[in-house]
Structure formats: C-alpha cells, structure tokens
C-alpha cells in the first residue's frame, strides 16, 4: 500500500512538472504510467468567477473510467489544500478554506489520483464539470474533452 501511495504521489509531482507545457486550456487529460495501469487525471479550466477558499467542484466522468480509488487531489492554482469525495462516477473536490481566493480568468489545474480506465481510454469522450465558486452558490458548467496518454508520464 505504501508503495502505491509513493507511486501515485510521484506521478502527481511528475504530472505537475509536465503540465506547464503548452496545451489546450480547458480539458481533462488521463495520464497513465502504463496501459491498463492506474492513472492521474489533470483537469484544467478557466475560472469565470472568483473562486473563494471554500469553493467546490463536481466532476462527472464517463463510465469508461473507475474513480472509486481516487483519494488524492492537488493543484498549483488552488492553494491551501483539497479534499475529495467519490460517489459512483462523480468526484467532488473541496477547497479547504485556507488558501486565497482565485481571480476570474485564472487557469485552474486539479490533479486527481488514482483513476483506473475500465476499457480502452483512447475513446473520445467528455467529462462534465460543475464549479461552485462558493459552496452551494453559483455554478459554472463545462463540458470538457477527455484525452489520454498511456505512453507514460515522460511526454
């Protein structure tokens, strides 16, 4: 179990490093260390409203992906820490309330681990993201394309 936590943590760090490369601003990317293995999701979107320290996010992924093992969330843009709750195909992400607000127009990244593809991840699909800039108040709804990279973290 400890080895799996180290792998997932290392994958998050590696993905944070490579995520600085020029990419489409709004998307969900699935990055796997090997085909059929555990994956990290990188979620990217532009905030349309100020995201307060108690903002929440709800990500609904297609049935092709098993999110039941998601336990970790990280972000370069959302300081102060994140927690996650998983129910079926939905991951709810909560800001801790400790970090600063994030201004509208800011590119927000959220990394989730560990996600398991149920079938071939190269199928073109979309995820739905609901952004609650403040828990329970206001909603930004986005349909994001899901892309995959099963060649590993070194791109």
Word description of this protein:
The protein has 155 residues and is mainly beta. The protein has a single domain, classed as Immunoglobulin-like (Sandwich). Helices cover 11% and strands 42% of the residues. Strands 1, 2, 3, 4, 5, 6, 7, 8, 9 and 10 form a 10-stranded mixed beta sheet that branches. A hairpin with a 2-residue loop joins strand 6 and strand 7. It starts with a helix and ends in a 6-residue tail after the last strand.
Characteristic terms for this protein:
mainly beta, disordered N terminus, single chain, disordered C terminus, Immunoglobulin-like, 155 residues
Largest sheet: 10 strands, mixed
Distance between the termini: 27 Å
Mean pLDDT: 75
Beta-strand portion reads: 35-45%
> What is the N-to-C succession of helices and strands?
HEEEEEEEEEE
Number of helices: 1
Q: State the domain count.
A: 1
**Might you state the CATH topology name?**
Immunoglobulin-like
What is the radius of gyration? 14 Å
